[in-house]
Design brief:
There is one protein chain. The chain is mainly alpha-helical. It contains eleven helices and six strands. The protein has helices at 28-33, 61-65, 90-100, 120-138, 155-182, 184-189, 192-195, 197-221, 226-256, 259-289, 294-321, and strands spanning 21-23, 45-49, 55-60, 83-85, 105-108, 114-118. Strands 1-2-3 form a three-stranded mixed β-sheet. The protein has a three-stranded mixed β-sheet with strand order 4-5-6. Strand 2 and strand 3 (55-60) form a beta hairpin. Helix 8 runs parallel beside helix 10, helix 8 packs antiparallel against helix 11 and helix 10 packs antiparallel against helix 11 (294-321).
Length: 323
């Protein structure tokens, strides 16, 4: 069966149909005689059905090999370690199979009937395709609508796709000069404030990139509670902000010999890192909702927004405490 791309949101296109099935009362010998009726090459297990044809267990082939043909197959039934729905994404199925340490996944319908299986070969194919897709997307190479392969996009196509987002980031970044100019009096009061501007923007950007990467990865592999995800990232960012804020504040105090500068740097780091986590976790989801590629678009936009917010917080605190 030819496989389709991961752009499809359903595992149904990777399902091997007609795997071996039996009932508890089926004998091993009867199952062997009916081997022509099933797709044996694709399967590692026989799936046991109830009277309504719902999956209730499985028996590995390795178990059946050494048993008598008169034995009832239900004698050796084991629990199905994992079942997935037909509408589940291929990526989520792979991650579930890795988590459960299994190499074959049963796919069931909404009412529990066996739709087919995803074999070890198919799971490996999905993993390979996903790895290739993520690697290309990180380089700004994407699949167009239709059947055109990734690798056929030339440099001009990639440039046209990536440039608008960089221009958007540039436009937001130009605000940084305006922001700094609005706080000229704070810089005049203490030139030491300029020493720590790169620290604030760097830490915010670093934490923001981490949040972006986690969010983009989560968007790719599974469905999830977006509110819970953002809340978790903000809490993590707050914790990180407190730690780097204390350390950064101490460092700024030692360098500048000013308690006020130390407090400004500490407070700015806490606020900037927390906000960066919020921006880094929400921007990819917003772009995904707008049908834009978050792996390419998030970086320039989120980075510029994080820098702008970081400087506003930094100089706002400086104005309040230093002046």
């Amino acid at each position: 069966m030819p496989k389709k791309t991961l752009a499809l949101s359903s595992i149904a296109d990777w399902v091997e149909k007609n795997p071996p099935v039996a009932y508890k009362e089926t004998t091993i010998g009867f199952l062997e005689e009916a081997e022509h009726a099933y797709n044996w090459d694709a399967a590692q297990n026989v799936y046991i059905l109830d009277e309504h044809d719902r999956v209730i267990g499985l028996v590995p082939f390795t178990t059946l090999i050494s048993e008598e043909s008169e034995d009832l197959i239900g004698k050796y039934i084991e629990k199905v370690p994992l079942t997935v729905k037909e509408h589940d994404s291929p990526q989520s199925v792979v991650y579930k199979s890795v988590r459960e340490n299994i190499s074959e996944v049963a796919v069931v319908t909404a009412d529990g009937k066996l739709a087919g299986i995803v074999t070890a070969n198919d799971l490996l194919s999905i993993m390979h395709d996903r790895h290739l897709e993520e690697s290309l997307l990180m380089s700004g190479i994407r699949k167009k609508h239709g059947a055109k392969p990734y690798m056929l996009e030339n440099a001009w196509e990639v440039l046209k796709y990536r440039l608008p987002w960089l221009i958007a980031g540039l436009a937001i970044s130009m605000m940084l000069g305006f922001i700094v100019s609005r706080f000229e009096s704070a810089l005049d009061a203490s030139i030491a404030l300029a020493f720590f501007m790169p620290v604030i923007t760097y830490m915010a950007a670093s934490v923001g990139v981490q949040s972006e990467a986690v969010t983009i990865h989560t968007l790719a592999v599974s469905k999830f509670n977006k509110t819970a995800h953002v809340t978790k990232e903000v809490l993590v960012g707050s914790g990180l902000g407190v730690v780097v804020g204390i350390l950064g504040g101490i460092g700024a105090f030692v360098i500048s010999s000013s308690l006020e500068i130390g407090l400004v740097v500490a407070g700015a780091l806490v606020a900037a890192v927390t906000v960066a986590s919020l921006i880094g976790s929400t921007i990819p989801m917003l772009l995904k909702r707008l049908n834009k590629d978050p792996s390419v678009a998030s970086g320039p936009v989120a980075a510029a927004m994080q820098d702008a917010v970081s400087l506003i917080v930094y100089f706002g605190l400086a104005t309040a405490l230093v002046l």
